[in-house]
C-alpha cells in the first residue's frame, strides 16, 4: 500500500540554512538528482533564492517587541525545513491528473497547518525518482511576533498528529498513514530491499484451447493476466534505481558527518579553554564594552536601551539580573548572549575579539563604549515614526465584550473612549489603547490580546514605533489634575479610575506607563509641583522596587488589594453582586501607605477623558 510521507527538520543557524538552500537549489552536487530532468523543478512560493526568502521573515538578533522582549532567542529555531511526498510506487503509477491533485492537496494542507504568511519558500523537486515538495517555514507566532517553533512542532505527539493530518489530506488519492508509533517503517525498508533482490517469479501462461470461439477476447484476457502477475516485478524495477541511489547518498552523508564530528571534537577542546577564560571576565568591563551606562546612585545597576541589569555582590559575585526581561544568569558569556541575541559561539567570539590574549581591556572597553553609544544614538534617530494600528470595526463587538464582561470595565467608560478614538479593535482582535503626550499628541499604543493562548495567557505589548518615554494612555487632564496616579497598564488605568470615582474622589488623572520603567524627567515635565503624585503600580516586588525609585521624585505609594487594580475592580463587582457593596475595596484605597483623596478638588465627570 502506498504511503503519504511528511517530515520536517529544525534549522537554528544561518549556516545551516545556507547549506540546506544550496542542496535545494542544486548549487552543490546532488547524487540522487538527474540534471536532465532539472526542468521539472518548479517554485510555487518564493524566489530562486530560498535562503533569502527565509531571511526576509526571520527577526534580527536585536529585534524586540513592544514590551522590550527579544523576538528571537539565541537558540531559536529560525526555520523549519519541510518535505512532503508519497511512496515511490505511487509515483510510478500516478497519472498526470493525480500528481497535480497531490500537489494541490499537499500545498493546501501546508498553508492550513503553518499559515501562508509563515511559508517563506516552497518548490517541487521533479528531478529525482521520487518527486517531492520541499521548502522553509519561518515559525513566527501570530500572537506575539516571536519565533516559536514549539507552537507547531513541539513534542513527539504533535509531530505524529501532523503526519496523521497530512495523510488524511491526501487519502482520496489512495495514500495512507504508516502505523503510528511503531517500528514498522524500518521493517518495511529491510523487507523492501529483500524484495528488490528476490528472483522474478515465472509467469504462468495458459495454453490456448484447441477451439477458440473469440480469439481476440482470449488474447486480451491473457495479456491482462500476465500484467497482473508481472506487476510486482515492474514496481520493484521502477523503484530499485532510486533506492540504490538513496543508499549511496546515505553512505556519503554518514562519512561526511563522521569527519565533521572529528573536527568538532578537536575544536571543542580549544573552545572550552577559551570559554573558561571569557566566562570569568569582570562583568562591569563587559557591560561597559556593550555600551551600558552605570547608574551613579546605584553602582551595581547598569542600563541601556531595553535593558536594566543589576550585578550581584558577595557570594553571588558574577551573577546578573535583567529587571525588564525578568531574567538572570551568571558569567560574561550568558550576559553577552542575553544582551546581543547571539548564540554561544557568537557570544564567545565577541568576547574573545575584545578581551582575548594581548588585548588591553581598558582601551578596548573605552573604544567599544564610544562605538555603542554612537550606534544607540543613530538607532534612536532612525526609529520609524509611530503609526497607530488600523481599526477593524468588525472585531470591536468581541473586543468590547472582553473588556466589559471579562475585565469588568464600565461600559460607559469603554464606549466614551471608543467614541474618542482612544480605544478600538485591530485586525488581530487586540484591544488598542492610544498613548498621548502632555499636549495630547498620539505617541504610541498599548495592545492587549483578547484571544486566549493554549497556556491561558493573552498577548500584551506595544505597537512598533511607540515612544514609551514620551507619554502613555491616560484618564483625565494633566493640566487640571490635583492628583496624578501612575499604573502599569491601560486596563489598570480604567479600573482605578472607576474605583476612585466610586470612592468619591474628583480631580484626578491616571496614566499608564506600560510597565514599571517610566522616565521621571519626561513624565514629570508637564506636571506642576503642587500636584500630588502617587505610584500605584502592581502589588508585587517589581512594583514596590519601581515605586521606591520614584520616592525621590515625591511619589507616594499606593498598592491594590489584589495583584493589580483590575483584580480590585472585579472583586468590587463580585461584592456588589453578592450584596456586600464596595466598602472593603474602598477602605483598602485609604490604607496607611496611601494618603486620602484631597478634600477640595476640581470637578470632573465620572467618566474617562484623555485630555
TrEMBL record:
Residues 602-611 have a biased composition (Acidic residues). CDD domains: MobM_relaxase, TOPRIM. This is DUF3991 domain-containing protein. One of its GO terms (molecular function) is DNA binding. Residues 482-570 form the Toprim domain. Residues 238-265 have a biased composition (Basic and acidic residues). GO terms for biological process: DNA recombination. Keywords: Plasmid. It comes from the Bacteria. Gene3D superfamilies: 3.30.930.30, 3.40.1360.10. Residues 235-265, 574-611 are annotated as: Disordered.
Amino acid at each position: 500500500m502506498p504511503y503519504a510521507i511528511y517530515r520536517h527538520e529544525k534549522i537554528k543557524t544561518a549556516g545551516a540554512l545556507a547549506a540546506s538552500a544550496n542542496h535545494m537549489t542544486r548549487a552543490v552536487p546532488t547524487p540522487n538528482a538527474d540534471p536532465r530532468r532539472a526542468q521539472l523543478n518548479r517554485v510555487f512560493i518564493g524566489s530562486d533564492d530560498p535562503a533569502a526568502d527565509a531571511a526576509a521573515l526571520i527577526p534580527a538578533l536585536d529585534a524586540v517587541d513592544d514590551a522590550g522582549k527579544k523576538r528571537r532567542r539565541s537558540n531559536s529555531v529560525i526555520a523549519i525545513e519541510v518535505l512532503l511526498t508519497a511512496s515511490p510506487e505511487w509515483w510510478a503509477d500516478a497519472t498526470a491528473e493525480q500528481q497535480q491533485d497531490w500537489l494541490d492537496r499537499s500545498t493546501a494542507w501546508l498553508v492550513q497547518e503553518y499559515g501562508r504568511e509563515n511559508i517563506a519558500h516552497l518548490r517541487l523537486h521533479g528531478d529525482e525518482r521520487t518527486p517531492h515538495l520541499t521548502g522553509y517555514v519561518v515559525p513566527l507566532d501570530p500572537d506575539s511576533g516571536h519565533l516559536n517553533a514549539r507552537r507547531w512542532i513541539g513534542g513527539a505527539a504533535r509531530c505524529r498528529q501532523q503526519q496523521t493530518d497530512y495523510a488524511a489530506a491526501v487519502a482520496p488519492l489512495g495514500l495512507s498513514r504508516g502505523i503510528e508509533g511503531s517500528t514498522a517503517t524500518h521493517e518495511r525498508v529491510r523487507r523492501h530491499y529483500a524484495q528488490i533482490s528476490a528472483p522474478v517469479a515465472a509467469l504462468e501462461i495458459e495454453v490456448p484451447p484447441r477451439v477458440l470461439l473469440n480469439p481476440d477476447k482470449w488474447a486480451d484476457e491473457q495479456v491482462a493476466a500476465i500484467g497482473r502477475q508481472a506487476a510486482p516485478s515492474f514496481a520493484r524495477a521502477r523503484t530499485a534505481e532510486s533506492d540504490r541511489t538513496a543508499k549511496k547518498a546515505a553512505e556519503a552523508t554518514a562519512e561526511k558527518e563522521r569527519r565533521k564530528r572529528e573536527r568538532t571534537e578537536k575544536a571543542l577542546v580549544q573552545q572550552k579553554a577559551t570559554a573558561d577564560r571569557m566566562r570569568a571576565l569582570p562583568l562591569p568591563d563587559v557591560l561597559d564594552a556593550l555600551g551600558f551606562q552605570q547608574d551613579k546612585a546605584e553602582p551595581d545597576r547598569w542600563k541601556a536601551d531595553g535593558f536594566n541589569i543589576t550585578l550581584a555582590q558577595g557570594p553571588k559575585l558574577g551573577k546578573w539580573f535583567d529587571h525588564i526581561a525578568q531574567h538572570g544568569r551568571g558569567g560574561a558569556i550568558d550576559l553577552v548572549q542575553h544582551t546581543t541575541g547571539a548564540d554561544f559561539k557568537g557570544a564567545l567570539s565577541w568576547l574573545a575579539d575584545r578581551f582575548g590574549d594581548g588585548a588591553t581591556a581598558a582601551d578596548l572597553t573605552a573604544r567599544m563604549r564610544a562605538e555603542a553609544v554612537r550606534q544607540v544614538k543613530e538607532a534612536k534617530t532612525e526609529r520609524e515614526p509611530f503609526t497607530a494600528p488600523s481599526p477593524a470595526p468588525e472585531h470591536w463587538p468581541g473586543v468590547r465584550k472582553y473588556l466589559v464582561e471579562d475585565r469588568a470595565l464600565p461600559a460607559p467608560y469603554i464606549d466614551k473612549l471608543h467614541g474618542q478614538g482612544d480605544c478600538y479593535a485591530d485586525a488581530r482582535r487586540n484591544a488598542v489603547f492610544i498613548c498621548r503626550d502632555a499636549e495630547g499628541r498620539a505617541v504610541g499604543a498599548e495592545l492587549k490580546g483578547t484571544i486566549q493562548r493554549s497556556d491561558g495567557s493573552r498577548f500584551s505589548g506595544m505597537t512598533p514605533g511607540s515612544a514609551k518615554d514620551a507619554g502613555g494612555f491616560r484618564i483625565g487632564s494633566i493640566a487640571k489634575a490635583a492628583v496624578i496616579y501612575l499604573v502599569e497598564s491601560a486596563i489598570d488605568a480604567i479600573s482605578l479610575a472607576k474605583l476612585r470615582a466610586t470612592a468619591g474622589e474628583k480631580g484626578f488623572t491616571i496614566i499608564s506607563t506600560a510597565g514599571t520603567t517610566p522616565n521621571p524627567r519626561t513624565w514629570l515635565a508637564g506636571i506642576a509641583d503642587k500636584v500630588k503624585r502617587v505610584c500605584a503600580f502592581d502589588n508585587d516586588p517589581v512594583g514596590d522596587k519601581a515605586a521606591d525609585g520614584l520616592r525621590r521624585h515625591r511619589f507616594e505609594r499606593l498598592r491594590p488589594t489584589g495583584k493589580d487594580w483590575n483584580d480590585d475592580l472585579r472583586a468590587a463587582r463580585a461584592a456588589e453582586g453578592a450584596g456586600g457593596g464596595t466598602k472593603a475595596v474602598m477602605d483598602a484605597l485609604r490604607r496607611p501607605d496611601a494618603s486620602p483623596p484631597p478634600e477640595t478638588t476640581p470637578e470632573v465627570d465620572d467618566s474617562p477623558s484623555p485630555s
